[in-house]
């Protein structure tokens, strides 16, 4: 039954992807959203057999589906959001103003980092946390800011939410800057076409928590997702990239965000 469900899910996504040609910026945003969902789920439950299905679209509503073990009610098992290209603004000043109007705060944003990576676009998105029965438990607003060509770096900011479980990734590096703790992580990803199957070696890595496998790409691709998290003034910050930036690079950039007055 599980095999049939997995195959059916992959076929549904393949049919949809055949009709959609996402741009690179939208794809990078979707990949980051997929990471947050997979990482959060890994932090609260153990997958006996995962089949993460990633639908990438220029105008994307992102969900994560899979075969999972049951957990107690009242816990968030998925974050759901919808992102449209029409919602993007291309001015840092305008994005800060939107945050003040919609979130009631002005999160710290850098215009151009010292390494030359500049603000490209951003948006304010409503995030909804649901339990395994799709009941809505919380909703909150999150600021997204994309930096560099094709949004190679992303800065996500939202107010701290007690109900959101912590991820399960191991800290690669930790630093303290101005009494703020910065934690750097990295996760290995394997993106596969909807009708592909991972090798036995990759399946074992996934079982051991050393690889995250997601479906929906047009070819097999391996990526390393690095990100730095920190908390400041009741807000949660996450600076991330699927690019070749190192954890040290992202920590240095995070410090520049903290320095914003």
Automatic annotation (TrEMBL):
The lineage of its organism: Bacteria, Bacillati, Bacillota, Clostridia, Lachnospirales. The keyword Transmembrane helix applies. Keywords: Membrane, Transmembrane, Transmembrane helix. It comes from [Clostridium] celerecrescens 18A. This is DUF4367 domain-containing protein. The chain crosses the membrane at residues 53-74.
